[in-house]
Specification:
The protein is built from eight helices and 16 strands. Helix content is 26%, strand content 30%. With 314 residues, it is an alpha+beta fold. Helix 1 crosses helix 8. It is globular, with a radius of gyration of 20 Å. The chain starts with a strand and ends with a helix. Strands 1, 2, 3, 4, 5, 6 and 7 form a seven-stranded mixed beta sheet that branches. Strands 14-13-12-15-16 form a five-stranded antiparallel beta sheet. It has three domains: 109 residues, Rossmann fold; 53 residues, 2-Layer Sandwich (Dna Ligase, domain 1), CATH 3.30.1490; 96 residues, D-amino Acid Aminotransferase, Chain A, domain 1, CATH 3.30.470.
């Protein structure tokens, strides 16, 4: 395989959590294969008279704490000067994020992963609505009366702001709470003009949820996440803990059902969130937890990822 010039569009490199960050792990593996590594932030991307460019930095990377990168040069480069561009910036998936996908879509030579159009078309929380047979009972909207009627069908419901990440903007409410309307109205207000998502609460989450890693539409591995004491959210960002997990028949069935959508949109790397055999979310912006997977299960997702990307880029 020839050496590739690879760029990563991501949040500032100095903010990486060295023992957790999946983007860093992907970069270290690419570097080990002899590829050239660059990065830029979303704010470094711009369009100028027919060309999409970025103020990019060429770096070497490692897992050394506080010394995980070294910058070798900085230059304005056309996106199409790169063989591969990884989109790895974190949500919120706001208009700034969307606008950058429009710019990246103008690149005609670089292989952009995941593709800008696919990132836009697969909303991480609402794309599950295409698979109602796989999901918990779900409601999306802003009508407070309709929301309360939905909630009264269950003992408890989970409310989610659509375009956040890491367990942010997620609460649990009881329909029997006399302050349900007040709390739901406050949540709608916090969401701004966006709809919110509500789902029946799945008590099985006390035993953890599962991240199913999918490469080119095929399930690669699974990892469990356990919520901390007193919380129902299993996200590591809010105190959850990773634990070893295995793919089961339900995971494979979910992945097989979602695969045509992922393949149609060109998604190379996705993370499916599953609770008790129910699909909760389809992550395509910057799926995480590869380091935890390697530590707990010995499975090296970046190696498998770059094997596939190198085949595509050949």
């Amino acid at each position: 395989m020839k050496s590739l010039r690879i760029a990563v569009q991501m949040d500032p490199i100095e903010t990486m959590i060295v023992n957790h960050d999946t983007s860093l792990m992907l970069m270290v593996e690419a570097q080990a294969r002899g590829h050239e590594i660059w990065w830029w932030s979303p704010n470094d991307l711009f369009y100028d008279t027919g060309d999409v460019k970025a103020r990019a930095r060429r770096v070497s990377v490692s897992f050394e704490e506080a010394k995980h990168y070294e910058t070798h040069e900085e230059a304005v480069r056309a996106v199409d000067e790169f063989d591969v561009v990884l989109v790895r910036q974190d949500p919120p998936f706001d208009m700034g994020y969307i606008s950058n996908t429009y710019l990246l879509e103008l690149a005609t030579k670089a292989l952009v992963i995941n593709p800008p159009r696919g990132i836009r078309n697969i909303s991480e929380k609402t794309s599950i609505l295409q698979f109602p047979e796989l999901t918990p009972t779900t409601w999306v909207g802003r009508d407070l009366v309709a929301l309360e009627a939905f909630a009264r069908r269950f003992d408890q419901v989970v409310l989610k702001i659509l375009f956040m990440m890491g367990g942010e903007g997620v609460i649990k409410l009881s329909a029997s709470d006399p302050e349900f309307q007040k709390k739901a109205r406050a949540f709608l207000s916090a969401a701004g003009r966006e709809p919110i998502l509500a789902q029946e609460f799945l008590p099985a989450v006390s035993g953890g949820d599962k991240r199913v890693f999918v490469l080119n539409g095929e399930p690669f591995a699974a990892l469990k996440r356990l919520p901390k004491e007193g919380d129902f959210r299993a996200n590591l960002a809010v105190g959850g803990q990773a634990a070893a997990g295995e793919l089961d028949d339900a995971d494979r069935e979910i992945a097989a059902t979602v695969a045509p959508l992922l393949k149609r949109e060109g998604i190379v790397f996705a993370g499916l969130d599953v609770i008790a055999g129910k699909l909760i979310e389809i992550n395509v912006t910057s799926p995480t937890l590869a380091q935890e997977l390697k530590r707990l299960s010995g499975l090296d997702l970046p190696k498998a990822f770059w094997d596939r990307v190198e085949q595509i880029a050949a």
